[in-house]
């Protein structure tokens, strides 16, 4: 079998990426009742391009999916589905198109809703498939015939069905409440869509004169412009001033209004002046206080973040310009007592980073507590498990304290809410089909709600809407509940929790157990990809690693392997080009080992030599570790098991021993198994080498190596361990004494039991007399040339090493002899210290021996 001299993944990776898609290698047909493994992709935004976070997540999923596809149950392949798709990403997509329009001097309102939506669809068709093509090129083994989009007709129908069901059960309602309003995106945001950033701010202390008394109440605020909308000041009922000031009024500075003093526990007598201003239209806590005391709501900041007419002379000013003017005017009137520096958690829109404004707005809301209760039960009962398990606590904390969800967005791109408002009776008609008359009064004078649903509403239905729900399809019968969700910790609440709630609510039929309605059985939570210094990657820091660039430079397999070898469950990854380069070096090692193998005649497939028996046992051990690691989502351990076997054992020891052999039959068998073992981690390289071996079908459809009792060989492993130890010692002695590896040495090896002397002599280039020993281990004595020996520089280094070792050994012994320390320290720590002490003492003895020689 011929193979190119140089490993150049760029020459074959694009071919296999296209071949897999064209041949529908990963197609999964519905076979209800058969064993299956299914996973729906976390749908990337249609606006996106592949970044390292996607690359990491997709590498994890693809490794798991490929392993599952190769794994056999009772000798048969399992029906495996990785379902792909993208999310319409309401705000993000609308921003992209609005920017494009702005370059043309237009706005969405210039086009009108219908024309704007058409423009967004055009943009989606032109640019929206970019990330999908990049995923295909990166080798994602999805069933691409099933690609879905959250605005597809089928998924849109599912969204309507879910909305109507929830509305009919009283779980969706419309009401005026405080929302997070983005002045730039001109829409309400859920709490989860607001990022909080700690910034340096100020706390302004303002004097409010008490009407009819020579007295002032001092209140503190971080947003002085909102005082124009104050409708009361609260003091605690336990405040000493409560009896005297209760029912008194205050003159609201800069206005001609009087506002009452109310008693409310929201005011803490021990904090500040003990008085709190209440601005119901601009603060969530004040909004609730306003309802308790039946206070008016005066909105002084509008949806454009400018002051409204209610702000009087400040009307029309930007909120921050108004702040400066208000502070200056208060100071001029002697009503500003003091200004303090104050750290603030400022909420910003997670898309455009504009500071959000709390505003009272009529929105559509979903009651979450009734949906959360069975979702909590599902996790408590183990119907859904988290990996790592500690993420259950995070899930519980949010679910037990869940609040109603604002599901409406003031956008034009998305799922328009299926509600029609009647101009005559003011009634609302919610319908699965487009309504033509009011369901309350029969009037035709109705208009559809202009708001769209939060993007997370449609993605919450993803595990079952993509399989044909609300119809009872063969796909749902074959693949639901899905088996696994792989996602980042940052969207547990955005997405994972909502999918659980929606899945149980929509898929659970009368008499059905919760476990049969959940959207997935297991949730694997992965960490973030960070730079080599463990800093978050960002363009401003200049530390972003672009997968498209490094894929081209090093090969996709190298990038995947670099990510997976660091993918301990839940931990963030410290990624650098050096890590990726190690992956490339590993791939190169495999390529060169295959070249060597392919240059040899196969011969018989006998397994009689020590080398063959040993490598069979090591293949068995690697298969055991890899299978266990994939099962537990410990991808770093799977990568380490395969690395150790292929590089350290197969290449560095086995092939070196086989060079003197004429029978390469078993080596070919082991190589084939090794490629299968490696395939989920490095799909392109293994597919290429698989076909170079003469196979015509994809390696991804073959069976994954399992433990084979016939390959176990304790004696071969013992003999080979002896060989490795002795050869390593010989090579160490040569290095220490600067003896050329080509110079043959003579010596004596004393060891109990049999020893593979011929192979030791081959790899160590020595001539040995083997003597029978009695104790464990071995004794090796080599006759060195008279000129050989350490230099004075080496001797000096050994002396200095031993000086340091003497101190370390003494310190370690002192600690281990301290009974108080030993009794309190964890057993693992003590065992570790004892192991280290033994290593220090062994190194000290070795140095002493070298100095003595």
Summarize the structure.
The chain is of the alpha/beta class.
Question: Tags for this entry?
Answer:
853 residues, alpha/beta, 4-stranded antiparallel beta sheet, 4-stranded mixed beta sheet, 28 helices, 30 strands
Any idea what the shape is? Answer: globular
Helix content: 40-55%
**Number of helices in the DSSP assignment:** 28
Strand content: 15-25%
Mean model confidence by pLDDT: 92
Number of strands: 30
Largest sheet report: 4 strands, antiparallel
Structure classification: alpha/beta
Distance between the termini: 51 Å
Radius of gyration: 35 Å
Task: Outline the low-pLDDT stretches.
Answer: none
Strand order in the largest sheet: 8-7-16-18
Characterization of this structure:
The chain has 28 helices and 30 strands. Helix 2 crosses helix 18, helix 20 packs across helix 24 and helix 26 runs antiparallel to helix 28. It has a four-stranded antiparallel β-sheet. It has a four-stranded mixed β-sheet with strand order 12-13-11-14, with helices on one face. The longest helix has 26 residues. The chain is of the alpha/beta class and 853 residues long. 39% of the residues are buried.
């Amino acid at each position: 079998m011929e193979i190119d001299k140089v490993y150049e993944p760029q020459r074959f990776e694009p071919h296999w990426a296209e071949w897999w898609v064209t041949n529908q290698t990963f197609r999964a047909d519905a076979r209800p009742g058969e064993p299956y493994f299914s996973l729906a992709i976390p749908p990337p935004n249609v606006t996106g391009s592949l970044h390292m976070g996607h690359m990491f997540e997709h590498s994890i999923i693809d490794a798991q999916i490929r392993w599952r596809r190769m794994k056999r149950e009772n000798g048969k392949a399992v029906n495996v589905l990785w379902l792909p798709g993208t999310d319409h990403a309401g705000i993000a997509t609308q921003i992209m198109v609005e920017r494009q329009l702005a370059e043309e001097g237009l706005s969405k309102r210039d086009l009108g809703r219908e024309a704007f939506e058409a423009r967004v669809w055009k943009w989606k068709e032109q640019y929206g498939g970019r990330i999908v093509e990049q995923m295909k090129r990166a080798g994602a083994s999805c069933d691409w015939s099933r690609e879905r989009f959250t605005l597809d007709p089928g998924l849109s129908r599912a969204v309507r069905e879910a909305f109507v069901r929830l509305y009919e059960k009283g779980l969706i309602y419309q009401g005026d409440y405080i929302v997070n309003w983005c002045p730039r995106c001109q829409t309400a945001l859920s709490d989860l869509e607001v990022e909080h950033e700690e910034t340096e701010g100020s706390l302004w202390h303002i004097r409010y004169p008490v009407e009819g008394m020579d007295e002032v109440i001092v209140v503190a605020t971080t947003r002085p412009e909102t005082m124009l909308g104050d409708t009361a000041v609260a003091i605690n009922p336990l405040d000493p001033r409560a009896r005297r000031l209760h029912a008194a009024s205050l003159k609201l500075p800069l206005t001609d209004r009087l506002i009452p003093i109310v008693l409310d526990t929201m005011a803490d007598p021990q904090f500040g002046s003990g008085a709190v201003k209440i601005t119901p239209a601009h603060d969530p806590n004040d909004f609730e206080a306003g309802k308790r005391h039946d206070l008016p709501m005066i909105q002084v900041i509008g949806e454009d973040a400018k002051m409204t007419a209610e702000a009087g002379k400040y009307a029309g000013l930007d909120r921050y310009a108004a702040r400066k003017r208000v502070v200056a005017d208060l100071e001029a009137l002697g009503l500003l007592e003091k200004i303090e520096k104050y750290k603030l958690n400022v909420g910003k829109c997670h898309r455009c980073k504009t500071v959000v404004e709390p505003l009272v707005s009529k929105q559509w809301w979903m009651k979450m507590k009734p949906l959360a209760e069975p979702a909590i039960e599902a996790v408590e009962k183990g119907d859904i498990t988290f990996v790592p398990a500690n993420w259950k606590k995070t899930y519980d904390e949010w679910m037990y304290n869940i609040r109603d969800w604002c599901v409406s967005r003031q956008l034009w791109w998305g799922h328009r809410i299926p509600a029609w408002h009647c101009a005559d009776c003011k009634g609302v008609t919610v319908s699965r089909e487009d309504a033509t008359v009011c369901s309350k009064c029969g009037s035709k004078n109705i208009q559809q709600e202009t708001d769209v649903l939060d993007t997370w509403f449609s993605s919450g239905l993803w595990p079952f809407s993509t399989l044909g729900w609300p119809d009872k399809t063969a796909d749902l019968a074959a693949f639901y509940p899905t088996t696994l969700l792989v996602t980042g910790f940052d969207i547990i609440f955005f997405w994972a929790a909502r999918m659980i709630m929606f899945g149980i609510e929509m898929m659970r039929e009368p008499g059905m157990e919760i476990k049969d309605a959940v959207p997935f059985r297991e949730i694997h939570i992965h960490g973030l990809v960070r730079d080599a210094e463990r800093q978050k990657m960002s363009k401003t820091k200049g530390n972003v690693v672009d997968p498209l660039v490094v894929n081209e430079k090093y090969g996709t397999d190298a990038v995947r392997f670099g990510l997976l070898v660091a993918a301990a469950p839940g931990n963030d990854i410290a990624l650098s080009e050096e890590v990726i380069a190690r992956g490339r070096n590993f791939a190169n090692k495999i390529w060169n080992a295959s070249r060597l193998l392919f240059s040899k005649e196969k011969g018989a497939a006998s397994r009689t030599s020590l080398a063959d028996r040993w490598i069979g046992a090591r293949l068995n051990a690697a298969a055991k570790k890899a299978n266990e690691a994939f099962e537990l989502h410990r991808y770093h351990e799977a990568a380490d098991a395969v690395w150790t076997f292929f590089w350290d054992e197969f290449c560095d020891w086995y092939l070196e021993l086989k060079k003197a052999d004429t029978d390469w039959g078993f080596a070919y068998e082991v190589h084939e198994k090794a490629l299968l073992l490696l395939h989920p981690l490095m799909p392109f390289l293994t597919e290429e080498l698989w076909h170079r071996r003469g196979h015509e079908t994809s390696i991804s459809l073959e069976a994954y190596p399992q433990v084979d009792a016939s390959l176990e060989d304790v004696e071969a492993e013992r003999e080979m361990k002896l060989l490795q130890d002795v050869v390593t010692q010989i090579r160490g002695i040569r290095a220490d004494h600067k003896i050329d590896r080509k110079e043959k040495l003579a010596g004596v090896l004393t060891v109990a039991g049999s020893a593979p002397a011929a192979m030791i002599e081959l790899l160590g280039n020595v001539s040995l007399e083997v003597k029978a020993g009695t104790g464990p281990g071995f004794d090796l004595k080599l006759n060195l040339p008279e000129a050989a020996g350490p230099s004075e520089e080496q001797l000096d280094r050994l002396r200095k090493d031993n000086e340091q070792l003497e101190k370390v050994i003494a310190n370690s012994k002192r600690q281990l002899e301290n009974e108080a320390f030993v009794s309190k320290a964890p057993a693992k720590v003590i065992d570790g210290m004892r192991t280290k002490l033994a290593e220090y003492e062994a190194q000290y003895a070795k140095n002493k021996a070298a100095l003595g020689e």
